[in-house]
């Protein structure tokens, strides 16, 4: 305001030189005023003197609070972006390490077709690439300030002040505001955090499933001296993954509260304020904790390739059924006939001690179409893993 000639430059210098505050004093004043911003202004004015009359000139409380909140949330996004980068680095290392480690893929929880553990981790790496994009989008959406007055018309303060101040704070000036910055921006911020929390939940759940006793293809790191159960000394529980799944519910719940805060009365009411004092610190601090915790979980994963291989063999090669089916159709057999022939071999495998290839060789509709050497080639893992290199390149690994 001093630079623009709206107030005496000498007064601006005094305000800068003497301006300070005391939190305990502010809290005492607020007991009387029941208004946080007025308590702050009274306290600062007590240190400045008469020149303090220029403070808060043409502003309303939300000009201060909403703009400050935008700075806080933008800086929070910067911290969370660093967290995601660290997580992706650790996940990428695991993906490369286990790129060719075979395991069974599952759909409906049932054995489907072979994948590799590296592919599973590459999928996680790719998903948190989208999380990074969502955080950047959330930061862009929320990095908006306002100094436009009681109902957003700039009636008592030149818009140039708003533009200059917002630029100094690393924000954009809101194109049009009321007494508040519109809460669809804050809802979008919270929704993006909720989606990222759900991604964390998704992978925590995945690791929890893979640690089940009947599966045990990996497990969380269990440190020396750690205890799993107060009653059962043998237990090694996936407590970190369970904690992350639980905390994801909190961030998703906070997003609902942010969505409820979009619909304010007219140019503004105060129903959003109390909510936001809880949900934004909670969600940002929780997200920081969850990303760091997930990074540690992934870094410390105990991976058991031999169990992956053993589980892969449980169905005696049934997962090659689609390879045989498709080759039959490529060689001219009607799909219905081909499906039924392969299914007979699959059912026989389930009811005998033979592997799938042995039972396939007993089905005339198959052996009359596909040579024996070709059948053996179709029942190999190479068929399933031939595009892994390309997939890794596509996700940037």
Strands of the widest sheet, in order across it, are 1-2
- Please indicate the count of domains: 3
What proportion strand?
A: 5-15%
Molecular shape: elongated
CATH class of the largest domain: Mainly Alpha
Q: How can the largest sheet be summarized? A: 2 strands, antiparallel
Structural class: mainly alpha
CATH architecture of the largest domain: Up-down Bundle
* Integer average pLDDT: 95
Question: Can you identify the CATH superfamily of the largest domain?
Answer: Fumarase/aspartase (Central domain)
Order of helices and strands: HHHHEEHEHEHEHHEHHHHHHHH
- Our measurement of the CA-to-CA distance between the termini, rounded to an integer number of angstroms, reads 52 Å
Counting H and I runs of at least 4 residues, what is the number of helices? Answer: 17
Number of strands: 6
- What is the helical fraction, as a range of percent? 55-70%
Question: Which blocks of ≥5 consecutive residues have pLDDT under 50?
Answer: none
Radius of gyration: 31 Å
| CATH topology description of the largest domain | Fumarase C, Chain A, domain 2
């Amino acid at each position: 305001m001093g630079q623009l000639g709206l107030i005496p430059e000498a007064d601006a210098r005094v305000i800068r030189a003497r301006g300070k505050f005391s939190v305990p004093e502010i809290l005492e004043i607020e007991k009387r005023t029941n208004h946080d911003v007025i308590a702050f202004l009274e306290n600062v004015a007590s240190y400045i003197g008469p020149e303090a009359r220029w403070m808060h000139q043409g502003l309303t409380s939300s000009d201060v609070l909403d703009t400050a909140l935008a700075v806080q949330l933008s800086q929070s996004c910067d911290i969370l972006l660093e967290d995601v980068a660290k997580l992706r680095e650790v996940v990428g290392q695991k993906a490369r390490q286990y790129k060719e480690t075979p395991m069974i893929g599952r759909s409906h929880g049932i054995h489907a077709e072979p994948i590799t553990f590296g592919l599973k981790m590459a999928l996680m790496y790719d998903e948190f690439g989208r999380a990074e994009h969502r955080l950047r989008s959330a930061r862009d959406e929320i990095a908006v300030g306002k100094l436009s007055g009681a109902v957003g018309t700039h009636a008592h303060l030149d818009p140039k002040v708003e533009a200059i101040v917002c630029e100094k704070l690393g924000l954009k000036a809101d194109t049009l505001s009321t007494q508040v910055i519109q809460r669809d921006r804050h809802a979008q911020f919270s929704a993006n955090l909720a989606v990222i929390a759900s991604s964390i939940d998704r992978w925590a759940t995945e690791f929890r499933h893979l640690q089940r006793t009947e599966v045990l293809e990996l497990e969380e790191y269990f440190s020396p001296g750690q205890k799993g159960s107060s009653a059962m000394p043998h237990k090694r529980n996936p407590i970190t993954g369970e904690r992350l799944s639980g905390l994801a519910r909190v961030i998703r719940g906070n997003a609902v509260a942010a969505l409820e805060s979009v619909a304010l009365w007219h140019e503004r009411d105060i129903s959003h304020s109390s909510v936001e004092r809880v949900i934004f610190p909670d969600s940002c601090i929780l997200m920081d904790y969850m990303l760091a915790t997930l990074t540690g979980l992934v870094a410390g994963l105990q991976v058991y390739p031999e169990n992956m291989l053993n589980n892969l063999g449980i169905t005696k090669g049934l997962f090659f059924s689609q390879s045989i089916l498709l080759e039959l159709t490529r060689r001219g057999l009607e799909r219905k006939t081909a499906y039924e022939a392969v299914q007979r071999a699959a059912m026989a495998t389930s009811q005998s001690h033979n592997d799938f290839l042995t039972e396939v060789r007993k089905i005339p509709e198959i052996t009359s179409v596909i040579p024996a050497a070709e059948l053996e080639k179709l029942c190999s893992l190479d068929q399933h893993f031939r595009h892994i290199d390309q997939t890794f390149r596509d996700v940037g690994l």
